[in-house]
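can u do me a favor
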């Protein structure tokens, strides 16, 4: 009988609880024990944050958003923020984490996370911790899986918002700008924009030309369409300009703040276009709520597959969706870069064929 651990790392995402439940159900079915680590890798540093997860603990959690285990963005064991003499220092606490994993008697660890958490997982693998990964992110920016869980629910939220913004756009003859998540990858903007009938979609992969955006909106006006709906990914930026980024602790660049890009874009557009413009920042509404049917389903199946990988000792692998099959790939392949939109690819081409302006 085995004893395995599971943790959820990085931003929360609809479907995390489905994965946890899937892991617990299939592990318990094999007579194994499951230990839940609370608040991501952070939990290893606090004995009280490691608790047994049985069938009772996962009952009724399938439709719930968030993660019953809690999560954290700051628990990188190789660069752990600690306050020393009033200053925050990044300390390597990986030895402590590894010995804690040994002490807990875990024969494997399931890491449910995005690019950041899986990179940490890969490092811990090198230190001898047997790990399997489960790809999580609403941004859908992980390689080697057709889709990540959480993305579908986020898309539904963004599409619904676009439907709602259409009425005000049309009634008031306004430009309604919706800022959606997507720091590096514009998948949410692109697919919700197609589904929600957006007129303009701006993504980080295609720097936009403000003059051309304005021309496209004016051209619509000439055709009697006195309103426009624009979707802007939070990482979008103008041609010749740069992303709105800052250096965060640990040297990682992040978008400065949600809301910055939509506002900056509308100020720019307001400078070249005489129309009423309003911005809505969808923000963390995209990360919350009950997971969609699709996300519950692949989340649950990812959980089951993670346990199968442990059983066959396929450590260092990440579960993934390829076509209609749940299979696995080396974590290493999934984290070598991000899954970004191809500006010359099929989805962009189809969006343009639908008359959507992509900022170029
Ligand atoms: O990676 C998921 C994500 O939702 C991004 O799209 C967004 O930039 C970021 O997380 C927001 O993170 P936080 O919750 O830390 O503001």
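np, heres the sequence
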């Amino acid at each position: 009988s085995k004893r395995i651990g599971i943790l959820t790392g990085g931003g929360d995402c609809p479907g995390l609880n489905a994965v946890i439940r899937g892991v617990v159900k299939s592990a318990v079915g094999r007579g194994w024990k499951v230990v839940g680590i609370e608040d991501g890798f952070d939990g290893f540093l606090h004995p009280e944050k490691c608790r047994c997860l049985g069938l009772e603990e996962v009952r009724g959690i399938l439709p719930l958003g968030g993660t019953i285990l809690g999560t954290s963005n700051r628990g990188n064991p190789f660069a752990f923020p600690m306050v020393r003499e009033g200053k925050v220092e990044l300390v390597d606490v990986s030895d402590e984490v590894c010995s804690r994993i040994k002490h807990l008697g875990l024969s494997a660890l399931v890491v449910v996370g995005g690019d950041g958490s899986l990179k940490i997982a890969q490092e811990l693998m090198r230190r001898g911790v047997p790990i399997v990964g489960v790809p999580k992110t609403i941004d859908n920016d992980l390689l080697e899986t057709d889709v990540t869980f959480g993305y579908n629910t986020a898309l539904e939220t963004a599409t619904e918002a676009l439907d709602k913004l259409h009425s005000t756009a049309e009634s008031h003859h306004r430009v309604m700008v919706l800022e959606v998540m997507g720091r590096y990858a514009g998948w949410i903007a692109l697919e919700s924009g197609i589904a929600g009938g957006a007129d303009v979609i701006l993504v980080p992969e295609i720097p936009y030309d403000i003059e051309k955006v304005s021309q496209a909106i004016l051209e619509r006006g000439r055709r009697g369409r006195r309103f426009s709906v624009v979707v802007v990914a939070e990482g979008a930026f103008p041609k010749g300009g740069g992303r709105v980024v800052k250096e965060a602790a640990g040297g990682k660049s992040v978008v400065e703040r949600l809301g910055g890009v939509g506002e900056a874009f509308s100020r720019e557009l307001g400078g070249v276009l005489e129309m009423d413009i309003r911005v809505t920042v969808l923000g963390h509404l995209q990360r919350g709520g009950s997971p969609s049917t699709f996300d519950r389903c692949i989340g649950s199946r990812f959980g089951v597959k993670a346990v199968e990988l442990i059983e066959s000792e396929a450590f260092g692998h990440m579960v993934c969706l390829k076509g209609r099959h749940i299979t696995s790939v080396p974590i290493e392949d999934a984290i070598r870069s991000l899954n970004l939109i191809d500006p010359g690819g099929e989805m962009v081409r189809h969006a343009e064929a639908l008359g959507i302006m992509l900022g170029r």
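The chain has a mean pLDDT of 94. hope that helps!!
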